[in-house]
Design a protein that fits this description.
Elements lengths: L2 E3 L2 E11 L3 E7 L4 E6 L23 H4 L1 E8 L5 H10 L7 E6 L3 H7 L11 H4 L1 E3 L13
Antiparallel strand pairs: 1-2, 2-3, 3-4, 5-6, 5-7
């Protein structure tokens, strides 16, 4: 076991990221699945339980191995001249920006770009960009 906190325990860390707080992707013993853990919640010295990765290494986490395309476009409610400015600002090609990330990181990537999938802004200038391939991301995000 790498670390524990309360009833949480994780083995086999396979990735890390910063999304407001530091997270690590690892296999969780309690739920027996790959999950995201907030590092600041772990305390103490890790207990050595032998081979750390074993069967729960990167290859076992299919979601982590899945590359997902996120297509962003200027908010369609904006006037054409403002949409054109955003195309330049974001370095879009043909009016679209395609980003690729690991499946479990889709929500975090959108948040970093200021896109809240759970709340659509009433005023298009407040968000400026939107996700063009929402249906393709349904596996990774529960849309509101």
């Amino acid at each position: 076991m790498l670390a524990s906190w309360g009833s949480q325990a994780m083995d086999a860390p396979i990735g890390a990221r910063f999304a407001g707080r530091r997270h690590v992707r690892a296999y969780g013993e309690k739920r027996r699945e790959y999950r995201d853990f907030v590092l600041s919640r772990f305390r103490g010295v890790p207990e050595d339980t032998g081979e750390m990765l074993g069967e729960h290494g990167k290859r076992g986490d299919e979601a982590w191995q899945t590359r997902v395309a996120v297509w962003l476009i200027p908010d369609r409610r904006l006037p054409p001249e403002e949409r054109e400015m955003l195309v330049v600002d974001y370095g879009m090609c043909d009016g679209e920006l395609r980003l690729y990330c690991r499946g479990p990181l889709v929500l975090y990537a959108l948040r970093e770009l200021g896109v809240n999938p759970h709340h659509g802004e009433a005023e298009p200038r407040a968000q400026q960009i939107e996700v063009a391939n929402r249906e393709a991301l349904a596996e990774w995000i529960r849309w509101s």
